[in-house]
Design a protein that fits this description.
The protein is α/β, with parallel strands linked by helices. The chain contains four helices and five strands, in the order ββαβαβαβα. Helix content is 35%, strand content 30%. α1 links the parallel β2 and β3.
Length: 117
């Protein structure tokens, strides 16, 4: 497996979804299902993108749409340079809603979760 999608729920405090590795058309259904679950919880969540090493066009589009639709309770944080490059190449750069790398302020808004790498 070239990717990992790990969902950690904290006791009522929030949720952490970590995306790692190569995210492409083959991992898209699993990534979409995990994002659906996080959005459906209707509570604070972090989606940590620091471990993403490749992001194809469809996956970049999926992340962007999710950040626009669920940005009020799901924070997309710590994008790797590969995420930023893919999002920029797709023309979403100026509309991206990603928290900056090493953003401790957003992490503090989700007590009980580990701090982003």
């Amino acid at each position: 497996m070239l990717h990992a999608i790990e969902l950690t729920e904290s006791d009522g405090e929030g949720t952490l979804l970590e995306l790692r590795g190569d995210l492409d058309v083959f991992s898209l259904p699993e990534m979409s299902a995990a994002l659906d679950r996080v959005a459906g919880l209707r509570r604070p969540a972090l989606v940590d993108l620091s471990g993403v090493t490749f992001l194809d066009v469809r996956s970049a589009h999926e992340l962007m749409v999710r950040s626009w639709l669920h940005g009020h309770h799901v924070a997309f944080v710590n994008p790797s340079w590969q995420v930023l490059a893919s999002v920029g190449a797709c023309g979403f750069g100026e509309r991206a809603r990603f928290g900056p790398a090493e953003n401790q302020t957003e992490a503090a808004a989700f007590p009980g979760l580990p701090e982003p790498a």
